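ugh ok so i messed up the first submission bc i forgot one of the chains. this is the corrected input, ALL of the components this time, i swear. 457 residues overall. if the numbers dont match what u have on ur side tell me asap before i send this to the collaborators (the ones from the other lab, u know who)
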Amino acid sequence: MRHVVVIGGGISGLAAALALVDDGVAVTLIESAPAVGGKLRISEVAGVPVDEGAEMFLRRVPEALDLVAAVGRADELVSPRTTAAEVWARGALRAMPAGTVMGLPGDAASLLGVLSADEVDRVRQDAELPGEPPGEDISVGGWVSARVGPAVTERLVDPLLGGVYAGRADELSLAATIPQLPRDERSLLAAVRRARPAAPSSEPVFATVTGGMGSLPASVAQAITRGGGTIMTGRTVRRLEATPTGWRVVHGATTDEQVLTADGVVVALPPSPAARLLADVAPAAAGELAAIDSASMAIVTTAWRTDDVPDLETSGYLVPAVYDRPVKAVTFASSKWAHVGSDDVVIVRCSIGRHGDVRDLQRDDADLIATATAELSTYAGFTGGPVDSRVSRWGGALPQYTVGHRERVRRIHAAVDALPGVAVCGATYDGVGVPACIRTGRAAAARVVAAMSPGPR
Ligand SMILES: Cc1cc2nc3c(=O)[nH]c(=O)nc-3n(C[C@H](O)[C@H](O)[C@H](O)COP(=O)(O)OP(=O)(O)OC[C@H]3O[C@@H](n4cnc5c(N)ncnc54)[C@H](O)[C@@H]3O)c2cc1C
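and heres the new structure output, hopefully the right one now
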């Protein structure tokens, strides 16, 4: 039977391993952490299970829905009670304008409030301003500021990209981070109107499972082992070596090295460990991977007595970087999800850390909790203090899709395709969201199976 080793047990590696098992391949998944899941992890705050990393997925694309169904948990799907959100702008919390695509507006009038009247007038100039369409690639911030003015970048686009990528609009690639936007339009407003759905849908955009996203990896792992696959945790893969008939995967501490032989290998790792692993066998791919920077961040989760919390009508708010506050996003988890919190306890997640700015992340946990508490007391009207708290640190968590990212990814795939039976997948390539990761995992599994067919090499 053909044997494939999947390296990395985040959602991408798990999706690849499950697809391989379903394809009748013998699979071993190796994960360096004590448990599988990567950025999907859950633990309790004030006795309430709360996600430490990803908390939801996009349900307008099928991949995550399919995976939840495949592991028998379709009946646990839940949608947020509200997705209404606010942004701190011009001295107050203001409703996020409707009809934007990653903060890019399709019309000017809806921006009044977040923008001043003069700034809204500047947005309207987009229709007449000369210029070229963005073409192959350009930075999101560069294009938005040139077309509709810097206020839109600062107060809408940058905070949203900061939420998804912990990145900065002036560095991130338009083609890679907002791929649905046509790049043949000179007018930004016209491009956004073309990218928006023709009619607003009443279907929920996001979902999770009631046990939390962090409970999903264990379900996928069970499905893999039920299908005959093997999962090894607490084992770091150190080297990949080509043999005349396949691959040797060397794992474990230097004092305890062990070797697995394989017909195929899926590398489901973030950019830095993937670069290290591929350095000897695919130096060109490793060089490209090493050039992808990642942003670090922390999620500070606090639990509050219900009496100390004002009425919360939204799912949370964003804080643009221009206001220089450590907390860049606040999620009122108990308002957003019916299953998070109780009558007595309200759960809030605060996100800290942006690409290129690790100053705040160097503070100790107590300091970060105090920072989150101060944000909620000063700007959201919370009183007293949290009854419980947790700091989840995510070092190098989110790959930065800078200008030219899609070309870089093409070069990585081309270099890896030259290695028989090897494929890469994960948040590094075609989207950091959970469905995109699952899609790359399945695609990597398919590539390896195709390369190994028919039968072992
Ligand atoms: C705080 C946070 C919140 C997020 N929120 C959302 C959200 O709400 N919705 C959404 O869709 N996305 C969200 N994301 C993004 C999404 O969670 C990630 O992009 C995705 O989970 C990444 O999955 P992955 O499998 O590609 O990588 P990872 O989860 O990073 O998995 C890689 C795995 O490889 C392991 N590993 C590393 N080196 C080795 C080695 N040498 N040998 C063996 N194993 C190794 C690691 O331990 C890790 O488990 C969030 C991300 C973060 C950080």
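quick check: The domain at 3-40+62-78+210-292+402-452 is CATH 3.50.50.60 (FAD/NAD(P)-binding domain). that seems consistent at least. The two ends are 11 Å apart (CA to CA).
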